[in-house]
Amino acid sequence: MTAYRESHPMHRVMRRTAATRPMAKVFGIIQQPLDEFVLELSHGKTTASSWLAGVDIVMLTTTGARSGEPRTVPLLALRDNGNLIAIASNFGRPHHPSWYHNLRANPQATVQLDGEDRQVVARELVGLARDRGFELGETVFPGFTHYARWTDRRIPVLRLEPAG
User: Fold this and answer.
1) Cα(89)–Cα(13) distance, rounded to whole angstroms?
2) Which residue, 163, 18, 158, 11, is CA-closest to 86?
């Protein structure tokens, strides 16, 4: 399983840079619009984050917990034995990201990965499974280690399994 690519030094630099407090704040603001823009330009083949950092970014579409409307966000996805692991770090902010609340209310979702839409069901991991998922995230993106230190909350880890 390859969750990220080491083919270019820029990938390592971008992952390390994104793991700093100032850049986490910046990326928290610019990541979604920038990823959506590049995704549209590439006809669904890549995002800015994926291209710059060499990581798998999916476009996750959930159902809004309160609105019932579709909500789409870019999300670092970790490939894990046919599933995807999603870490609700929210850049180390004190609250969970909205997509986490949406998946708790309605675990059915869609991910766009490798240019194709896939139906998934989200399951929150607990105990050793949660710890293993978080450790997988840390091997791919060092920012998760920092984000966990910056917040008082326990960062949730979810498995996105193929629906059906």
Assistant:
1) 20
2) 158
CA-CA distance, 157 to 164, in Å (whole number)? Answer: 21
Q: What is the bridge-based pairing of β-strands 157-162 and 116-124?
A: antiparallel
Q: Are 116 and 151 in contact (CB under 8 A)?
A: no
What would the pLDDT profile of 63-119 be if each residue is shown by its tens digit? 999 999 999 988 888 999 999 999 999 888 899 999 999 999 999 999 988 778 999
Amino acid at 143: G
This prediction has a pTM of 0.77
Rounded mean pLDDT, 141-145: 83
Which strands, in side-by-side order, build the sheet including 70-76?
70-76, 57-63, 108-113, 116-124, 157-162, 83-87, 78-80
